[in-house]
Design a protein that fits this description.
The protein is α+β, with helices and mostly antiparallel strands. The protein has 4 helices and 10 strands, in the order H-E-H-E-E-E-E-E-E-E-H-H-E-E. It has one domain: Porin (Beta Barrel), CATH 2.40.160.
C-alpha cells in the first residue's frame, strides 16, 4: 500500500509541475530540437529481432516529449530443452511507449536534451506465441500438443534518467529508474492429440518451465494450472530501464 501511495504521489507531482512551472527560456530558431534514437534494451535482453526506434522533440529549454515504437517478441530459445521435445514456434508482436520530460534547470548546465530529467510515461507491449510441441522418448505420453498464447502489458509510471550529448550530435539516453503500475492480460490455449493426465510429470514440467521463463504467467493461469483456454488479467508493480543511442539534428 505504501508503494502504491508513493506512485500516486509522484504522478500528481509530475502533472502539477507541468501546470505551475515558470516560463522557460526561448530557444534559438536554429536550435537542434530533434533526436532520433535506437532503443537497445529489448534487442539485448529479449531477442535480436526486436528493433525499436525512438524520437524525442524538445519543446522548451527544459522540456521535451518522446515516442518509441517497434517490433517486439519474447524469447523462447531453450524453453523446452529439458523436456526431450521438439517444437516449431511462430511469434511476434509490437510495442509503443511515450513520455513527457522535465529537465532539471538548476542541476543541468545545458538546455534539453542534455542532462538529468524526470517525467511521466506510458507503454504498451503485445506479443503472441504459437508452438507445435511433439513429445517423444517418454513412458508417460506420446503425441503432439498445440500451444497458443497472447499476452498484452500496459504500464504507466514516473521515470528518472540522464541523457548525454556528445559533440552536439550524438546522444546516449539512460533511464535508470521508472516505478510503474502494470496491467497484464493474456489468453493461453492448449490442444492437440496428446492424451495426458494434468497431474503427469510432463504437464508439470511444461508448467514449471513456462512459469520460470515468464514470471507473470502465474497471474494469468489460476493456481498455476493450465486450462484448455482462458483469458485473465492482473495488476502488478514494476520498474523501467532503458538504454538508447541517438543522433541529434
Amino acid at each position: 500500500m505504501k508503494i502504491r501511495n508513493l506512485f500516486i504521489a509522484l504522478i500528481l507531482i509530475s502533472f502539477s509541475s507541468s501546470m505551475f512551472a515558470q516560463k522557460d527560456s526561448i530557444l534559438a530558431p536554429d536550435y537542434r530540437r530533434n533526436v532520433l534514437k535506437w532503443n537497445m534494451t529489448p534487442f539485448l535482453l529479449w531477442s535480436k529481432k526486436n528493433i525499436n526506434i525512438s524520437y524525442e522533440r524538445v519543446l522548451k529549454a527544459n522540456r521535451s516529449f518522446s515516442v518509441n515504437a517497434g517490433y517486439f517478441e519474447l524469447p523462447t530459445a531453450g524453453l523446452f530443452d529439458s523436456l526431450n521435445i521438439t517444437n516449431s514456434s511462430s511469434k511476434g508482436g509490437f510495442s509503443i511507449s511515450g513520455d513527457y520530460r522535465f529537465y532539471f534547470k538548476k542541476r543541468n548546465t545545458r538546455n534539453a536534451p542534455d542532462g538529468l530529467y524526470w517525467g511521466p510515461y506510458g507503454s504498451f507491449h503485445y506479443t503472441q506465441m504459437g508452438s507445435d510441441i511433439e513429445v517423444f522418448n517418454s513412458d508417460l505420453a506420446d503425441g503432439k500438443l498445440k500451444m497458443d498464447a497472447n499476452i498484452a502489458i500496459f504500464g504507466a509510471g514516473v521515470e528518472l534518467g540522464y541523457q548525454f550529448v556528445i559533440k552536439e550530435r550524438l546522444t546516449v539516453d539512460v533511464i535508470f529508474m521508472g516505478p510503474s503500475m502494470s496491467v497484464y492480460s493474456g489468453k493461453i490455449t492448449l490442444g492437440g492429440n496428446l492424451e495426458i493426465d494434468e497431474k503427469s510429470e510432463y504437464m508439470k514440467a511444461i508448467r514449471d518451465i513456462l512459469i520460470k521463463k515468464f514470471p507473470f504467467l502465474p497471474d494469468l493461469v489460476a493456481d498455476r494450472e493450465f486450462k484448455d483456454s482462458g483469458f485473465s488479467s492482473t495488476m502488478g508493480f514494476g520498474m523501467r530501464y532503458m538504454v538508447q543511442v541517438g543522433y541529434r539534428f
